[in-house]
Design goal:
Distance between the termini: 116 Å
Shape: elongated
Structural class: mainly alpha
Number of helices: 51
Number of strands: 2
Strand order of the largest sheet: 1-2
Radius of gyration: 49 Å
Oligomer: single chain
Largest sheet: 2 strands, antiparallel
Length: 1061
């Protein structure tokens, strides 16, 4: 290898010697040929691995290089190549132990630094290209590596005669300037930092020598880390922290310096006011740092690191640290945070006395990072307490400006102190102060940011509340992880702060609660908070309740790293609960009653909406804390939950649903239905009390929600309440909004009744079972579809009483109109078009004088065939009666709602067909009057209602339908322009159905009227004249397709053809 290498480099060395040994007057420092020879030699050397060549070959190669260096000047490119050649010689020949003589090293180091930068200020170097700087750093780094491998390295830079201290300072300056002046060259910076690390950590190692170069290093690194407008590469930051940390530890090591702390300052010159302002704030003023210098003086040595030096430099170090530590913390880079915590911890451990002025800064840094890798904070508990108290005093500022890190560090500090000390007096003081600050957070931020506005919420009506209620399964999937563990909703309970800030504040209060519980002070604090806020505003009471509740919620997992500090999955319910739970529940009840009374007749505002959400949230948390024991308290708070399920605020309803799910999970296996059904008696009592006390505005919506959730079973328990509602209709029929809510409730009751007793979506089956006489099409006379049905019909006709069919011609106009009277008496005579009688049902009075045969006959006639029980059927009849009477009410929404309810009820009433007919006779005229109104919305609803009534009443309404058409001809506003012209102009007949375009509202009403007419024609087409049918069809053709009309029967098909052709 050696001979091969010699043969490779020999020609290049010979060629280089031709230029190196030229006389000065003939030497061209910028010669291109010289540059080529240098490049050629460098190319040969670059092929070999580190340490692979001998020192003899290095001496041979160095001969022409040394001659070149004796010339007066060299060009920049030539100098760069010579530095690169020296790098290769250091790498190949002088890198192992014993190969690099000390004398050569002392000559070579100044030479290298001079070649890199001939001036002390490095002005020329700063303007050189990055490639040159890379070569310079690489060469200095290799020199330090080679020097490190030599046995004399530890004395190489000692302050003795002949030591290259000047060159050392120059070399360090070169590297520092390269680091500082090249912020975008992170690889170059890292290489230079590592070169300095080898020099400081592996070669010099002596704090006394390093103390000379310390100020320049600290200043440079502070500038690098604080460069304005530049984000320093994270790897550069890590390297700087590592190097600066080791440098400070060596220079300020307490053990080597033999530093002592004196508690009292006796000389004013020892007091530096500026450097001790922070110490004064945290109780450290008066501490004096002294270095024992007499020992060195006795040995006849002059020491650089004296007490004066320490006081001067430690202040500069503190200023430098204060400049870049906050900036590094704000970067929120995990690697940097860990490195910074390690940096501070090592200084706090090894330089505690020397850098005593930085103690507060170090503890604050560890708190802000929420890291204590060496568990040192406990050794500085007094400083920690003072910092904590100062942060508590600034808590409002932290919240106002969303300083999340500071609030996180506050909880970290509380955890540390609570683990260290037992029953400290200061803890109670700081707890009271912190809770007071938290209680006033919303008020402070509202007023400081001028956010105090009485905004009204957008209230929703009862239809939206009931129909828009989210399914409980959806609520559960969005808010629950499992039955036992809830996640808070995305809704904020402290509206003035962000959700993230709210969760952090919540975690602090949870931690405080744990500490107070350990000190047996929790009940005292909670009772004090709740009792102090009796006369406070709503917002303040809300925060008091929220704070008190969160104090009871314990977070068992103390996360010392705080990585998941904002993660709210760590919530764990308490195993046991405090008696404070009862105080909070009682406060919730009183607070809710206060809000309820204040909202009577008023629109809910944001403050009260948020207060109700906090009340519900508190009940949720307390139910989870108390678990099964909450069942004994449930009856007092169930109505609050159910009442808010019917709130006009969507936000309140969501919290109420979460609350009901929580209680159901704890007590009723997750079933909200069971929660309501098992406590329905208490709900009945609560609602009855409110109705009797005149609080009637919200009760109907509450009943709607209860019925919607638990089904019709609950209504059976609310019979007395419904009877009270009927009485209220008698008394308050002039209040349209109240009546509207009641009929919306009736709609929900009917829907749930239908769901309970009937097959949804198959009402035609009811018609077929209970009213075989209805003719649905002229193609199927009497509804018969096959020969078996025809034979059965003939058999039934032979054995039946023909005179039993009902007619409306002989209807008793003096029949009872009161429903109680109706159900307590016998109705014997009922009209029909066939003038026959049918005995009424529901005869509850027994005729003791009747014979057994009559009783048996009566039972047969009164046989109950409807799947709907009689008591539920009676409720329908009562609703129908009040609806009929209120159809004349001037409120348009109420009329439409009543018609909607009647339309829904008719198919259900038809299940007991003999009771439908008298009701048809009773309500017919009222609905017909609505059809001829000028308001098209009412016309539409009433026409749909009449269509249903005709469909299920059958031929009972034949005569009434004929009268209806006459009334429409005379009084209908909507049909006035659609009447048929009796002229024989066939051209006009062809244009029917095409020449008129109606507005949507008009068209919808006309469609409903047309469908109603077609339904009536299907019943009466054999009883009325073709002319009348033609007039009806003519009106229908304007809005309905001719195919749809013609498909109803052959008669209609013929009439449609005659009109359009």
């Amino acid at each position: 290898m050696e001979s091969m290498a010699f043969n490779d480099v020999k020609p290049a060395c010979i060629e280089l010697s031709r230029f190196a040994f030229l006389p000065t007057e003939n030497f061209d420092p910028n010669s291109k040929d010289l540059l080529g020879a240098l490049i050629k030699l460098e190319g040969q050397l670059s092929k070999y691995q580190d340490g692979s060549l001998s020192t003899r070959l290095a001496d041979y190669i160095f001969v022409p290089i040394s001659s070149l260096l004796k010339q007066k000047a060299l060009g920049d490119q030539q100098t760069e190549q010579i530095i690169l050649l020296l790098y290769h010689l250091l790498r190949l020949c002088w890198s192992s132990d014993g190969t690099f003589p000390q004398a050569l090293a002392k000559q070579l180091f100044p030479l290298i630094t001079f070649l890199i930068s001939p001036d002390k200020e490095n002005k020329k170097l700063k303007n050189r290209a990055s490639e040159f700087k890379n070569i310079a750093v690489k060469t200095l780094c290799q020199f330090f590596k080679s020097l490190k491998a030599q046995p004399y390295h530890y004395v190489f830079f000692l302050n003795e005669e002949g030591s290259p201290l000047f060159s050392l300072g120059h070399g360090i300056t070169i590297l520092l300037d390269i680091i500082l002046e090249n912020p975008t060259e992170s690889a170059l910076q890292i290489h230079a930092i590592r070169a300095l690390r080898i020099l400081y950590h592996d070669i010099i190692k002596d704090g006394e020598i390093l103390s000379f170069v310390l100020p320049g290093n600290v200043s440079t690194f502070a500038k690098v880390l604080c460069a304005p407008g530049i984000t320093v590469h994270s790897k550069v930051v890590l390297e700087v922290l590592s190097l600066l940390g080791s440098l400070l530890q060596v220079v300020y090591d307490d053990m080597i310096l033999e530093v002592n702390l004196v508690d009292k300052i006796t000389d004013l010159k020892d007091l530096n006011i500026e450097d001790n302002m922070e110490e004064e704030e945290f109780g450290n003023l008066g501490t004096k740092v002294i270095i024992e210098e007499t020992k060195f003086q006795d040995l006849g040595k002059n020491r650089h690191r004296t007490t004066s030096w320490l006081r001067g430099t430690s202040g500069q170090v503190k200023l430098a640290l204060q400049s870049f530590i906050p900036k590094l913390i704000q970067r929120e880079n995990k690697q940097i945070e860990v490195a910074l915590a390690e940096f501070v911890s090592k200084l706090l451990e090894r330089c505690e006395k020397s850098l005593n002025n930085c103690e507060v800064l170090f503890i604050k840094t560890l708190l802000d990072l929420r890291l204590d890798p060496n568990y040192l904070i406990n050794n500085h508990i007094n400083v920690l307490k003072n910092i904590l108290m100062d942060d508590v005093n600034k808590l409002n500022d932290y919240v106002q400006f969303e300083n999340i890190r500071k609030i996180n560090s506050l909880r970290f500090a509380i955890n540390i102190i609570s683990e260290r000390e037992s029953n400290p007096a200061w803890l109670l003081e700081i707890t009271s102060k912190l809770v007071a600050c938290l209680t006033y957070i919303p008020m402070e931020k509202q007023y400081s940011l001028k956010l105090r506005k009485e905004k009204k919420i957008a209230e929703q009506n009862s239809n939206i509340i009931v129909s828009g209620m989210k399914p409980f399964d959806e609520i559960r999937s969005n808010t629950l992880v499992s039955k036992a563990e809830y996640l808070p909703t995305s809704e904020k309970l402290i509206p003035q702060v962000s959700k993230e800030m709210e969760v952090i504040i919540q975690n602090i209060i949870n931690t405080l609660g744990s500490v107070l519980r350990k000190e047996n002070k929790l009940e005292t604090v909670v009772d004090y908070l709740l009792s102090e806020r009796v006369e406070s505003p709503v917002t303040e009471k809300s925060m008091t309740l929220w704070t008190s509740t969160q104090l009871l919620v314990e977070n068992h997992v103390v996360d010392t790293n705080m990585d998941s500090f904002i993660n709210i999955d760590g919530f764990s319910p308490l195993i046991k609960y405090d008696t404070s739970c009862f105080a909070i529940l009682e406060y919730c009840n009183d607070f809710f009653q206060e809000i309820t009374f204040s909202l009577e007749g008023q629109i809910m505002d944001k403050d009260r909406e948020n207060a109700i959400c906090i009340i519900l949230n508190s009940i949720t948390l307390i139910s989870r804390i108390m678990k099964d024991d909450f069942e004994s308290e449930l009856i007092d708070y169930l109505y609050i939950i159910i009442d808010n399920l019917a709130s006009s605020s969507a936000r309140v309803r969501e919290f109420a649903q979460i609350c009901s799910l929580s209680v159901a999970d704890e007590l009723y296996d997750g079933s909200v239905d069971k929660l309501i059904l098992n406590n329905v008696d208490y709900l009945v009592e609560s609602i009855s009390m409110r109705l009797n006390s005149g609080m009637i505005n919200h009760v109907s919506v509450v009943l709607m929600v209860i019925c919607k959730i638990a089904g019709f079973q609950t209504i059976q328990s609310f019979k007395d309440v419904i009877e009270t509602i009927f009485k209220l209709l008698e008394s308050y029929h002039g209040y349209s909004e109240l009546c509207l809510e009641f009929f919306q409730l009736f709609e929900v009751i009917l829907l749930e009744m239908k769901k309970e007793y009937l097959v949804v979506g198959d009402m035609d089956s009811i018609k077929r079972i209970t009213n075989e006489r209805i003719i649905t099409s002229s193609f199927k006379p009497w509804g018969l579809e096959n020969i078996e049905q025809a034979l059965e019909a003939l058999k039934t006709w032979e054995t039946s009483n023909i005179d039993s069919q009902v007619s409306d011609d002989t209807f008793d106009e003096n029949e009872p109109r009161n429903f109680q009277e109706y159900f307590d008496s016998r109705l014997r005579e009922v009209d029909s078009d066939d003038e026959s009688d049918v005995d009424s049902t529901f005869d509850k009075d027994e005729d003791k004088g009747a014979n057994d045969e009559e009783e048996e006959e009566e039972k047969q006639e009164e046989k109950w065939v409807s799947p709907i029980p009689q008591d539920a059927y009676k409720i329908m009849l009562q609703i129908l009666g009040y609806g009929d009477r209120l159809l004349t009410h001037p409120s348009k929404p109420l009329q439409i709602q009543i018609l909607k309810v009647i339309n829904l009820m008719i198919p259900m009433l038809s299940t007991q067909h003999n009771l439908l007919l008298p009701q048809t006779a009773q309500i017919w005229d009222g609905i017909v009057d609505c059809v001829v109104r000028t308001d098209y919305s009412i016309v539409k609803a009433s026409s749909e209602c009449l269509q249903t009534l005709i469909h299920y009443s059958g031929d009972f309404i034949s005569k009434r339908f004929c009268d209806l058409w006459e009334k429409l001809n005379k009084e209908s506003f909507i049909l006035r322009d659609l009447k048929r012209n009796n002229s024989n102009d066939r051209e006009d007949q062809f244009q029917v159905g095409f020449h008129v375009k109606f507005p949507p509202v008009t068209r919808d009403a006309l469609v409903s009227v047309s469908n109603m007419l077609l339904e009536g024609i299907s019943i009466t087409e054999m009883l009325i004249s073709e002319t009348v049918i033609t007039d009806m069809v003519y009106c229908c053709l304007h809005v309905l397709p001719r195919e749809k009309i013609a498909s109803n029967s052959l008669v209609l098909a013929d009439i449609v053809w005659s009109i359009v052709n």
